[in-house]
């Protein structure tokens, strides 16, 4: 499954290798909050922190902050601070973030389409 590194920074990329830096990005993208934040930013464009939190019931401010920081550090999300009183901060997807929004969107759709089936199979398995 290994792929050559297009930048030459590594010999190869192999998400199955425990030493591959791909694992950290896979971990970030497979996090439910990351997948949901990316989906919301894809749908809405520039969004403020409070809007994101309102659209993601169950996420605490600390978790949302940590996830946004990780997405920003991975160059998937841009954070823009406007010099206003009070300060206004908005989050948007970068080009890289837009490029991952499609596969994550397919995953979110698959989950919505199949959750009833999975739950039914789990009930059958547990009886």
From TrEMBL:
Cross-referenced Pfam families: HxlR
GO molecular function, one term: hydrolase activity
Keyword field: DNA-binding, Hydrolase, Transcription, Transcription regulation
Keyword Transcription: yes
Gene3D superfamilies per UniProt: Winged helix-like DNA-binding domain superfamily/Winged helix DNA-binding domain
Domain HTH hxlR-type, first and last residues per copy: 20-119
The keyword Isomerase is assigned to this record: no
InterPro entries, per database record: HTH_HxlR, WH-like_DNA-bd_sf, WH_DNA-bd_sf
Highest taxon above the source species: Bacteria
PANTHER family in alphabetical order: HTH-TYPE TRANSCRIPTIONAL REGULATOR YODB (PTHR33204:SF37), TRANSCRIPTIONAL REGULATOR, MARR FAMILY (PTHR33204)
Name this polypeptide is given: Cinnamoyl ester hydrolase
């Amino acid at each position: 499954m290994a792929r050559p590194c297009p930048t030459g920074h590594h010999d190869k990329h192999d998400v199955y290798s425990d030493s591959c830096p791909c694992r950290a990005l896979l971990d970030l993208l497979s996090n439910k909050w990351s997948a949901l934040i990316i989906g919301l930013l894809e749908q809405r464009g520039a969004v403020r922190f409070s809007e994101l939190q309102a659209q993601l019931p169950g996420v605490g401010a600390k978790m949302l902050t940590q996830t946004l920081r990780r997405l920003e550090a991975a160059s998937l999300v841009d954070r823009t601070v406007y010099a206003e009183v009070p300060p206004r901060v908005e989050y948007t997807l970068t080009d890289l973030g837009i490029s991952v929004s499609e596969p994550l969107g397919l995953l979110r759709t698959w989950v919505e389409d199949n959750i009833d089936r999975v739950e039914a199979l789990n009930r059958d398995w547990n009886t």
